[in-house]
Write a structure and sequence with these properties.
Chain lengths: 275, 318, 355
């Protein structure tokens, strides 16, 4: 009796796990399925699970409904540009916090933690005013510069740098390496896993970002992919769900690919925030 | 050799030191002292320009009458913006919506995540896969998540209503009905965030030393008592952190509103950041937007202060 | 190649003096060992010579150059660390070559130099490996090679052998000594282990609480300790200290290996040239060749080192006797050695056996 009970409990758990998985995966599968359907099939009731014929043309329509190549290029330029700048500003800052004792250190680090906690949504207006004063609104710069330094990046790297044994740095000093050289040839290579983690986090965040480009830009030349995709459903009267879903597939596919390749790193990146 | 010659017996060793280094000693020392500040400068200048200055600026702007159309004309109006804001019926509704949204997403979201974490915190590979699956919406752009759920919630052709009808229930209007629109946004937010919270909970659970559970088991503690007396108290730092983080991010909700409802119908889904955006960018009412921003800033500031207070105490007692 | 001179070198950490005005000459080409209990300031002294710590007061000279203001990389010294401190992201070749590259030595010369050194320390087959793929002994060799390749004026070593197992440590001890002979460079070696100090050094600096207790060759240090601290620190087990007979301002000491243990039944020949104490064996430690007897005597508890064959029963009554010339006399107040009982100073004759 007990044995049977144990088996059916196990089965129940497996069913439960399957339901949970479907709850989170099925919407994406449905998105993919819709992206390949014809409009009549989209409107069909009851809906079909898989498309009858695979309409690749939905993707073409989505892509051609706006300057999507430009959006994509802009998205890449912005996400990569931010990443490079954040890397260049975070490495020396984290090195200073991790390796030097100097007056004002804890105050400055406290400020970094404040930046870490308070979201940009709170202060977008004055930044807009400021950038517009500099004539930078509606340029790619307005999307990049405000994010040139990352508090999260500094925080993560500082942790990594603090774990480097003092002796290794002292050995490098005796090897006549300058502080600058120690930073880039000893510390940065040793912090590589953390850099990868942070890079993924930053790239995903800014690739996905909708709010900032919406605020800062108003012309196609400088808009990014999320803005382009979001304008798909406002195109004409009846919503073209299939084209819309196809467009979104374009937006999320790179992220999903990265997620599959570097899943462990990404999960670490996001979970790390809690520490 | 009985005893080494002492240093003082050596001639001429005292005078060499001044010119020993290639550079003057004082200059070298100054460079060493300045170095950390130089290394911090790029990042700190960025924070100053795009964080601390704007914070001061937003407070100042909230006392002015201004708009984005003409930044040349700004007029000091004192507290008038705040008076207008509090008198604004819409803003009151916005605050109410934000409160309901926050309590619901944080409350339901964290409860679900906690239960999922208890369930999925196991070694076998399946659980890892399910964890990753539950987490996956978190890394997807809110644009896609919003559009996907608009499609699922479409009253005519959407999958949700099709499913409801298949089991004989009436369809739902979801986003189109002021009674259900906020609930719809809550569902989307929970769906997107639950995976992240679950993973943080799991990380927290794994940091609880296993021998405590073994001791509890030896004491024949029933599972619910172990949960209430051991797991939850040990997890309290994680719970607190998640409460703060989730509350702050609920205050920030914007993308879903902008894409799914634009605050409607009849203002039923309008919340703080969207209100600020509308006032500032669409209605060119800079003063109102700025004062609403300051209120948001105060709310977030309080939460941040609580967080730091809690963290410092934790560090202190460790 | 250079002599190292310390003049009144002082180090203060947060108002606490950890090194108190050291005056010391480390002769060119010597193997000088700084030894002392942990916290005595020996490592700090070494790190000040390396330039890793600033000097709070006083001067350090390497050769004839004052180096107080010179950064570590410009002092022409090399250091071997306790934990090797290899660069974990670089392979063995790059680890050794890093210092050369930082000095702007051409790629070609780098390669030649590294390969030459690798040959000497026996690492030629491991140049492509990462430190994590090496054994403890191999890592130690990389650390040595990294120091040697720079052809420094002075080698600094901070407890370099303490992470190795006993067997490897003995082997490396011999290797380091012969390396020193081969290179003829000044070695400054820090350790807390007196055996290491005695076996390797030709000049030993005993330190305690930031001060130098004695500077001497190994045998001198053993035979002629200048004070109570050195007497008790050098030698294993430590020198026995008993109260002086008839003089409250003095303390007497004798080495456990210089005492004789007789059964109580054998009454010792009463003689003026012996110190005698009756007592009971309370415990013994068998070391193999020797045995340590802990004896509770009327004049205090002492340890006697004797042949294992002299197996005494635990709890047996015994008599401890020491020839008076082996009894050291210390001043109770200043802790300085005054001389020996019997008034015979053997220093001059015994110190000859050193070097």
């Amino acid at each position: 009796m007990k044995r049977v009970g144990a088996i059916s409990l196990k089965t129940a758990e497996w069913i439960g796990l399957l339901v949970v998985a479907l709850l989170f995966v099925f919407p994406f599968l449905w998105m993919a399925s819709t992206a390949f359907k014809t409009m009549p099939e989209v409107r069909q009731f009851p809906p079909s699970l898989l498309p009858e014929s695979w309409e690749w043309s939905n993707f073409v329509r989505a892509w051609e409904s706006g300057p999507f190549l430009m959006y994509t290029v802009n998205s890449i330029v912005v996400a990569v540009g931010i990443l490079v700048l954040q890397f260049l500003t975070a490495v020396p800052a984290a090195y200073a916090f991790a390796r030097y004792r100097f007056p004002g250190r804890s105050l400055l680090f406290g400020l970094v933690l404040v930046v870490l906690m308070i979201p940009g949504q709170v202060i977008f207006l004055p930044i807009y005013v400021q950038l517009s004063g500099w004539g930078l609104v509606n340029t790619l710069w307005s999307l990049i510069i405000p994010y040139a330094a990352s508090a999260f990046g500094i925080f993560l790297l500082r942790q990594a740098f603090m774990q480097v044994p003092d002796e290794v740095i002292e050995a490098a000093r005796l090897d006549n390496a300058s502080e600058w050289r120690i930073m880039w040839t000893i510390m940065v290579p040793m912090a590589k896993p953390v850099l990868v983690t942070f890079g993924l986090f930053s790239f995903i965040y800014h690739w996905n970002d909708y709010f900032w480009p919406l605020i800062m830009t108003n012309s196609d030349e400088v808009r990014t992919l999320p803005i382009g995709i979001s304008s798909l459903h406002m195109s004409d009267g009846g919503t073209l769900w299939n084209v819309m879903m196809a467009g979104n597939m374009i937006l999320i596919l790179p992220i999903l690919v990265i997620f599959f390749v570097a899943q462990r790193h990404i999960i670490k990146a996001f979970v790390y925030q809690s520490k | 050799m009985r005893k080494a010659a002492t240093a003082h017996e050596l001639p001429g060793t005292g005078q060499v030191q001044a010119k020993a280094a290639g550079m003057p000693v004082a200059w070298l020392e100054l460079a060493t002292r300045l170095r950390p500040y130089l290394y911090l400068a790029p990042a700190m200048i960025c924070f100053l320009l795009f964080f601390f200055y704007p914070i001061g600026s937003i407070i100042y702007l909230s006392f002015l009458d201004w708009s984005l159309i003409n930044l040349e004309e700004m007029e000091w109006v004192g507290l008038q913006n705040y008076r207008d804001l509090l008198a604004d019926q819409d803003f009151r509704q916005v605050l109410g919506n934000t409160a309901v949204f926050t309590v619901a997403t944080v409350g339901i979201g964290l409860t679900l995540s906690f239960l999922l974490a208890l369930w999925l915190n196991k070694k076998a590979k399946v659980y890892g896969i399910i964890q990753a699956t539950v987490f996956s919406p978190h890394i997807i752009s809110l644009v896609s998540v919003s559009m996907l759920w608009m499609w699922l919630m479409d009253p005519q052709f959407g999958l949700l209503n099709a499913a409801l009808e298949a089991v004989g229930l009436p369809g739902y209007t979801w986003l189109a009905d002021p009674k259900s629109s906020l609930l719809s946004l809550i569902i989307v937010s929970i769906w997107k965030g639950v995976g992240y919270n679950t993973l943080i909970f799991i990380a927290g659970l794994q940091s609880i030393p296993g021998d405590i559970y073994e001791a509890a088991a030896l004491d024949q503690s029933p599972w619910w008592r172990t949960l209430v007396r051991i797991t939850i108290p040990m997890l309290s730092p994680t719970i607190f952190f998640l409460l703060i983080i989730n509350t702050i991010s609920s205050f920030q909700v914007f993308d879903t509103i902008a894409i799914m409802t634009q605050g409607g119908p009849i203002n039923s889904t309008n919340m703080l950041v969207y209100y600020i955006y509308e006032q500032g960018m669409d209605f060119y009412n800079g003063g109102l937007a700025a004062s609403a921003s300051v209120i948001l800033l105060i709310l977030v500031g309080i939460l941040t202060a609580l967080h730091f207070l809690f963290m410092s105490r934790r560090v202190h007692y460790r | 190649m250079a002599r190292v001179v310390l003049q009144g070198v002082t180090k203060t950490f947060q108002n606490q003096k950890v090194v108190k005005g050291l005056d010391l000459v480390i002769p060119d080409g010597s193997f000088t060992v700084l030894v002392g209990p942990s916290g005595c300031g020996k490592s700090t002294t070494l790190r000040m010579i390396a330039g890793l710590e600033t000097v709070s007061d006083g001067n350090i000279l390497i050769g004839d150059q004052a180096v107080n203001a010179l950064p570590p990389g410009k002092r022409d010294v090399a250091m071997v660390f306790q934990n090797y401190a290899l660069y974990p992201t670089m392979n063995v070749f790059d680890n050794i070559a890093y210092g050369l590259r930082n000095r702007g030595i051409s790629k070609k010369d780098c390669k030649l130099l590294v390969e030459e050194i690798a040959e000497i320390v026996g690492l030629s087959d491991y140049l492509k490996r990462k430190p994590s793929q090496l054994s403890g002994g191999q890592r130690q060799r990389v650390a040595l090679a990294r120091a040697m390749v720079k052809k420094p004026k002075v080698f600094l070593m901070d407890e370099p052998l303490s992470n190795l197992d006993a067997k490897l440590r003995n082997q490396m001890r011999v290797e380091l000594t012969s390396l020193h002979k081969q290179l003829g460079t000044t070695f400054i070696y820090v350790t807390h282990d007196q055996v290491e100090a005695m076996t390797m050094g030709d000049q030993i600096v005993v330190m305690s609480e930031g001060q130098i207790m004695q500077v001497a060759a190994p045998m001198d240090l053993y035979q002629e300790p200048e004070n109570l601290f050195v007497a008790q620190f050098i030698g294993s087990p430590a020198m026995n200290i008993v109260s002086a007979e008839g003089r409250s301002d003095q303390l007497w000491g004798f080495r456990p290996e210089k005492a004789l243990l007789l059964p109580a039944s054998v009454s010792p020949v009463p003689a003026d040239d012996r110190w005698v104490a009756k007592g009971q064996v309370v415990s013994r430690e068998i070391l193999g060749s020797d045995t340590l007897f802990h004896v509770e005597t009327e004049k205090g508890r002492v340890i006697v080192k004797a042949d294992t064959e002299e197996a005494r029963l635990l709890g047996g009554a015994v008599t401890v006797t020491v020839a008076k010339p082996h009894m050291y006399v210390f001043d109770r107040a200043s802790k300085k050695r005054v001389g020996r009982l019997g008034g015979r100073e053997q220093a001059a004759t015994l110190a000859g056996g050193v070097s």
